[in-house]
Amino acid sequence: MKNILKFLLKSIVSRVIGRYDPYIIAVTGSVGKTSTKDAIYDAFSGFRKIRKSAGNLNTEIGAPLVFLGVERPGESAWSWFIILLRGISLLLKKDKNYPDIIITELAADKPGDIGYLSEFIKPDIAIITAIGNIPVHVEFYKSPEEVAQEKEKLIYSLSPNKKVILNKDDRYVSKMKTKAEKITFGFSEESDAVIKRFQGNNLNGILTLIEYNNKEYEISLPKCIGNHFAYLAASVFLVGVCLEIPAEKIPKMMKRIRPVKGRFYPIKGINDSTILDGSYNAAPHSMMSSLDTLKDISAKKKIAVLGDMLEIGNYSAEEHRKIGKKAASICDYAFFVGEWANEMKKAALLAGMSEERAFSFSNVEEMIPKLENIISSQSLVLVKGSQRIRLEKAIFSVMHNPEDAEDLLVRQTLKWKRQ
After folding, report:
1. Alpha-carbon span 171 to 132, nearest angstrom
2. Number of domains composing the chain
3. 3-state SS record for 45-87
4. Which of 49, 170, 294, 354: disulfide with 99, CB 3.0–4.6 Å?
């Protein structure tokens, strides 16, 4: 049934793209896909009629739905029939309000995913955010190199009149091949858009200076906290350039960018604390970056709530130990949650953290009472873990206004709450 659905979606969406010919912006990478996609939309949504894919609909089934104007996948045969009927209606009757620009993200959960999607989703602008040394989903691949090769399929066959925006600082991304025009970003002086200066060591957002074509542009992103937003800012700036928006106008447009729920979203916590909510997902690259941000921000007490990093296969033990060791050097208290919690705690203890400040729990429910007792005035609490750990439950328990959970936290639908 899934193969039949894939075939029907591909057939209909291919024809919809052919008929409406939208300008397609596609984002892939092992980290930062959704944040980058949403940031592009936030910055340029007033520029032309723009539509973005909803949430993280980025799979072989989810990614095509944005071209049909559908925001959630079907949950039954009947609901999928309605979705397909929506696609057919777009072919039978011209939709005058169809968007000029469509922004989508594409995932590579397993080998072949990007190759399949790139057969009919051929972007005018493709962005590859980062792969990292140990990318998420690597357990389904032979190596990080194979993950990079899968991502590269998005850009390899693009024609020379298309644009490809690549992270120059990522050793895998920077080597990717394409016939399209390459534009790079990063701290490397060899980048087309060079991140010259970055300030993000407070809770008031980031300020970065980007040099492009021998000119400097200062970009401010209020509410966006974390080192990774420097890369996001540079890549979104280049999207604006590719859209032929005057470069001097782009920084003002980018002030509209806001963080995505669960991806380092700042939330007011109990006892006048601040929570950095990274509960959506986690991989070694993003986990390390989050801890670096926690290190850089001044706070009376620093607390890290760190869950398992899943789908990294044979790298799991070593990478979780690295996280425990790093947390010990940064945090006043560390809470480790999940199957690898004990390994992280052991590494933290070996690095010098005391038993009174490092805790391990098999699940989030066990941890909550202890966390509530530790958070005091002006604490800064980093919460980061893979989806299956469900760390949003911990945030709900320690946020100042739990009645705002549906607006601020991830996985608040009835379907998720039942799980």
Report:
1. 8
2. 2
3. CCCCCEEECCCCCCCCCCHHHHHHCCCCCCCCHHHHHHHHHHH
4. 49
